[in-house]
Amino acid sequence: MSMKKISRRKLIYAGIGAAAAVAAGSLAYYTLTPPTAPRTTTGPRPGTTITVLSIQDPFYFPMETLVENFEKETGIKVNLQAVAYDELHAKLVNSFLAKSPGIDVACIDQMWVAQYADSGWIVPLDEYIERDKKEVNMMDFIPSVIHSLCEWRGKIWSLPVAPYAQGVLYRVDVFDELGLEYPPTDVNKSADWTWDKYYNLVKQINGKTVGGTKFYGTVICGAQPAPIVHMYTQLGASNGARWFKSFPEAPWDFEPLLNSSDNLAALELYKKFYNESPPESINYLWFDAGMQFGMKGNIGLMYWWTPYFYLVTKAGYMVKEDSVLGINGKPNYDKYRCALLPRNPAKTQVISVGGWSFGIPTYSANKEEAWEFIKWVTSAKTQKEMGLCLEPSPYQFADFPRKSLYADTQLQQIYPWLPLQLKLFEGWETPYKAIPSGKIVRPTVPIYVTLEGIYGLYLNKAVAGEMSPKEALDTANSFAKSILERNFYIPYKAESYNDTLENCIEIMKKLS
Amino acid sequence: MKRPYLFFIFPSFIFLFILIAYPLIFSLYYSFQFWNLATSHEPQGFIGLTNYLTLLNDPRVLNAIIVTIMLAVPTTMIELLLGLGIAVLLDRDFKGIGIFRAIFIIPTAVAPVIAGLIFRFMFYQGLGTGIIPYILHIIGIGTPERGILGDQQTALIGIAVTMIWRWTPFFAITLLAGLQSVPNELLDAAKVDGASRYQIFRHVKLPHLRKLIAIVFIICFMMHFNAYDEVFAETRGGPGEATTTLSYLLYWEGLVYYNIGLSAAMTWLIAILLIIIVNIYFKFAFKGEKI
Questions:
Q1: What does residue A81 show for φ and ψ, rounded to 5 degrees?
Q2: pTM to 2 decimal places
Q3: How far apart are CA A491 and CA A253, in angstroms?
Q4: Is B20 among the domain residues?
């Protein structure tokens, strides 16, 4: 048998040809394979397994405990996966870029909704909501929550599972011992509740010893970029600071205003707060600040996201043991209380709204089943059960997206601050105007995460004393401007949308 | 066919070529494109060297290069010295040496992000004082008010300590293997010549280890140059930019901001920097030698 000789050159050519063919084939498959087509049959199929990718925020734990109820009711199996904040976004985006049908229900931070929607990675839920309007009961959701977490360019992309607002926590025993006036919970008595007054209280508490514990006046969240931005922007917005010249109202103009005089004054005040905080709080993440108030129990007064209203009652994250602020598994509301945010009398009060919602990825092959799950987890019934859940940690969920639950007496007995929390979500007109808005405090534009990175870095530098507040804000603004210009936000040539709360309420009404 | 073996290694060659070359070509191609997922989910076109120029004009990149070098060089050197010292101490037979070696390697086997979290708690100063500030206070060494990881001057040292804890055992075990491979004939000859233990170490064992040290050093240096996990777990690049390494910055650009074009350019920038450093290192470490 004779063997035909193959020259080295031919071998190399053949190799390159084969490699090119494989690469071209892969590329063609990647680009030409259409996303899995939506199922034509209607209704969820029992026996189907859906994958839910979630964050491990407090809502996850009672949801995980109760998910077997959903499985029993519907026959749909749930593969519930939980990851940390940073990993969640990466996993979702990687899955979307690969057009993978691996995720059926995506847990979405309010900051990602616009990017996912504009990229066509999640499906609008308007048709689903309209079809199942009785079950969904859209008008029971708090409008500011839908506006901040779920709506983008006039469509609803997700439903909220755990919305957060910001409010004040204070130690009753410390205020009593030092003879200080309690911060108000009644809007009608809160006109003189100002940031200056807040700072004066902080100063009066700092360094005092009560019940054998030496107290700090307050605690800040200083780690960059997201933690400090989350806490600082509440103070900034409350004092009139805005990120852009015009957003969310149309016409959109993304000229950055990070170095405005309002923002500078707010940052100087935040720096003063840091001086009355534990020094190491410059490096504190979200939970560290909350735990200093609860587990360590040496903070007199602070403002933070509403989940901390109950998280501070435990000795650690999702543990059964009570902190000094818990009693028999429940909040000890005689020892600490929650209150309204202070304001700047010269400015319109703005309350930060954030949190998590669930949406359906475009590439999911189980959209109907995913929708069933979303309806179940956001329903009043499930949400109430989550609020009353004892496992793995008792009473560690009160972030209800539905108004009706805030009037529930059983829930109010455990979480006495619920009427106040609803007020923070709803805002008010008199005796002064207060607007609840996630879109003003931290604008939910697709480029937000990049801007937050820059902003957080320079806020941290200013608070740490590495730069003056003015220098830090000027640098952040200049960076932001260059990023916005490079990414076609300045000048903004795409279509604007008048993204007001009123317009969102109209959409909700239409879907009801 | 002159060399039939070529035919048989050909499939593996193609497979490896695709595996290695595709990501490189992909990232090189996109480093010249404008592609930011915050703007569009598809590339927006060729922009030449703009991504590279943006990076070179970004003060955060220069800072990250300085931080990376300040972290990688001293950390690797300290690990080498400690590892060598430990290897010399272990280079003898005593009861339980096998178990000791097995336990000793555990830190290297711990996932870097776990090591970072462990040290974050050990450095803690506010929420229940961690063991490290506690011990330092007992022996009379004060720690910064903001905590070791919260202070500009000490945060990088905190990260370096974590890395030294993880990688010193690797150096020690590798160098120990090197020490034990020194031929007995050489050691016996040195002893016959009346050489002291120090002289044997200095003039027989150390020259024998030279190449091994050079290789292990550069491998660890490259790993430290790409430090990310410890930074993420302990400081998130802060305070300010005190611990923002190049890899951490790359993580943000690539997997948080999803600026694909810019992060691809940054990948190449890091690779080029590393290639230059490694080549200079090899030029000096193996002057006139074939390796």
A1: -120, 140
A2: 0.87
A3: 8
A4: no
Please say whether the beta carbons of A463 and A205 come within 8 A: no
Domains and CATH numbers, chain A: 49-163+353-415+502-510 (3.40.190.10)
Percentages helix, strand, coil for chain A (3-state, rounded to 5) are: 45, 15, 35
How many CA atoms lie within 13 Å of A338's alpha carbon, on the beta-carbon side?
A: 26
Secondary structure class of B262 (helix, strand, coil): helix
Q: Residue B72: name the closest of B273, B284, B236 by CA.
A: B273
The pLDDT tens digits of the residues spanning B188-236 come to 999 999 999 899 999 999 999 999 999 999 999 999 999 999 999 999 8
**Chain A interface, best mutation among B16, B19, B33, B236, by max A CB count within 10 A:** B236
H or E element, residue B135: helix B131-138
Q: Give the domain extent around B259.
A: 25-109+155-285
Looking at the structure of chain B, the number of domains it has is: 1
Closest partner CB to B239 (pick from A8, A93, A282): A282
User: Is B114 inside any structural domain?
Assistant: no
| Set of chain A residues whose Cβ sits within 8 Å of the Cβ of B2 | 5, 8
- Within 8 A of A493 by CB-CB distance, chain B residues are none
Biggest alpha carbon–alpha carbon distance for chain A? 106
Whether residue B134 is contained in a domain is answered as: no
User: CATH code at B88?
Assistant: 1.10.3720.10
Residue A460: its chain B contacts at CB < 8 A? Answer: 238-240
Kindly report, residue by residue over A154-188, the tens digit of the pLDDT: 999 999 999 999 999 999 999 999 999 999 999 99
Nearest CB to A23 within list B18, B124, B235: B18
Interface confidence (ipTM) of the complex: 0.80
For A334, residues 6+ apart whose C-beta sits below 8 A from its C-beta are A172
